[in-house]
């Protein structure tokens, strides 16, 4: 009895292993077959769109080909072509591509309960969206999923709608810094709409965080008419706002800018003083030499270091101040000045060596 049981169990195990092997082979064959189909469809879709752009086939013929392809393949091909195609030619083709079954489905996805479908819809809108899709884009730019919101904001690279730009800005001012950077780059082409809104956010702030974000965007726009609004926030009660002001002023070459940064070197907050020193170095403001020299004796090490680096950026006069500090009697002042000078000297040696190696490679 036990012998028969062992044979039965062994037979079952062998059969199970064989079935698993057959299943793996069948699965692999199916994957290869699907890959071949995908390659054929990708080639057919790419050829159809290129033939349409070259005037070899009609829009109807192109749509018939694309409508027979998988929607993921269509999305990939359309996105790739959008990056390669001239902007004017692309806009000419947009009406024909909007009639694709794939795009009509994407428009329905904008109202989907599933965030990944809404994300697909947002991506499609960045490529083919028009003023007819504003109602859908309004939903997407305030979506509960942050990725969907950021992708939908990209539509403003192609579309111009004041209401949509305002909604995107309001969302961006409360977003994470990384997402803010992308959205601000998208809004660069809508400064005529965005600039007054930024002024409103600064004058009537919801929170210190939104003021900081607004100041950051003002600096990225680099509109001289906004400089006055930034300068007004230099005495803000929140240290984060004053630090944002100090960072932003490093992008404006103006006498008022230098004077305000020199004043911020005396701020109670060490991070504000450090940022002010850094911005003065970027502006290469020679009139700030004495003020920066004083910061070499600051209680905070980061301020002393930023002041030393800023003096290096000021050229001969700044280096002369560092040399005097290095030979001075104050130990901390002297040590920091020597350290900065040593680092600066090493960087110069590395730059010369890199240029020499580059020259040798060219030869």
Structure, explained:
- With 363 residues, the chain is mostly helical.
- It has helices at residues 2-53, 59-67, 71-84, 87-98, 101-109, 115-128, 134-141, 146-153, 162-172, 177-186, 191-203, 208-221, 227-232, 239-249, 255-264, 270-283, 289-295, 301-313, 316-326, 331-362.
- Helix 14 (239-249) runs parallel beside helix 16, helix 15 runs antiparallel to helix 16 (270-283) and helix 17 (289-295) packs antiparallel against helix 18.
- The longest helix is centred in the N-terminal third of the chain and has 52 residues, at 2-53.
- The radius of gyration is 31 Å and the shape is extended.
Describe this protein with a few key phrases.
mainly alpha, 20 helices, 363 residues, extended, single chain, disordered C terminus
Question: How do you describe this structure in short?
Answer:
The protein has 363 residues and is mostly helical. 77% of the residues lie in helices and 0% in strands.
Class computed from helices, strands and strand pairing = mainly alpha
What is the subunit arrangement here?
Answer: single chain
> Mean of the pLDDT scores?
84
Amino- and carboxy-terminal Cα gap: 87 Å
H and E order: HHHHHHHHHHHHHHHHHHHH
Into which percent range does the helicity of residues fall? over 70%
Main beta sheet = none
Number of helical elements = 20
- Shape call: extended
Portion in strands:
under 5%
Number of strands: 0
Radius of gyration: 31 Å
């Amino acid at each position: 009895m036990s012998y028969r049981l062992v044979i039965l169990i062994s037979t079952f195990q062998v059969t199970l292993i064989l079935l698993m092997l057959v299943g793996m082979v069948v699965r692999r064959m199916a994957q290869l077959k699907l890959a071949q189909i995908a390659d054929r469809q990708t080639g057919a879709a790419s050829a159809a769109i290129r033939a349409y752009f070259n005037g070899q086939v009609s829009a109807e013929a192109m749509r018939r080909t694309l409508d027979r392809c998988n929607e993921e393949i269509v999305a990939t091909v359309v996105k790739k072509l959008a990056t390669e195609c001239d902007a004017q030619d692309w806009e000419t083709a947009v009406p024909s591509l909007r009639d694709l079954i794939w795009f009509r489905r994407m428009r329905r996805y904008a109202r989907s309960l599933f965030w990944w479908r809404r994300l697909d819809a947002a991506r499609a809108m960045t490529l083919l969206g028009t003023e007819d899709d504003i109602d859908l884009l309004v939903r997407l730019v305030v979506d509960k999923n942050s990725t969907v919101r950021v992708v939908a904001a990209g539509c403003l690279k192609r579309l111009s709608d004041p209401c949509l730009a305002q909604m995107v800005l309001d969302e961006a001012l409360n977003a994470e810094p990384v997402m803010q950077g992308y959205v601000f780059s998208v809004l660069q082409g809508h400064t005529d709409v965005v600039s007054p809104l930024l002024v409103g956010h600064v004058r009537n702030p919801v929170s210190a965080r939104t003021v900081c974000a607004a100041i950051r965007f003002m600096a990225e726009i680099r509109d001289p008419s906004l400089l006055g609004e930034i300068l007004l926030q230099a005495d803000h009660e929140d240290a984060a706002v004053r630090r944002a002001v100090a960072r932003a002023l490093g992008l404006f070459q103006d006498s008022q800018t230098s004077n305000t940064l020199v004043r911020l070197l005396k701020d109670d907050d060490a991070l504000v003083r450090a940022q002010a020193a850094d911005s003065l170095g970027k502006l290469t403001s020679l009139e700030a030499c004495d003020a920066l020299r004083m910061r070499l004796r600051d209680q905070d090490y980061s301020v002393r270091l930023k002041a030393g680096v800023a003096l290096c950026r000021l050229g001969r006069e700044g280096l002369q101040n560092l040399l005097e500090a290095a030979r001075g009697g104050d130990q901390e002042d002297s040590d920091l000045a020597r350290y900065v000078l040593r680092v600066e000297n090493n960087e110069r040696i590395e730059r010369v060596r890199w240029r020499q190696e580059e020259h040798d490679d060219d030869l």
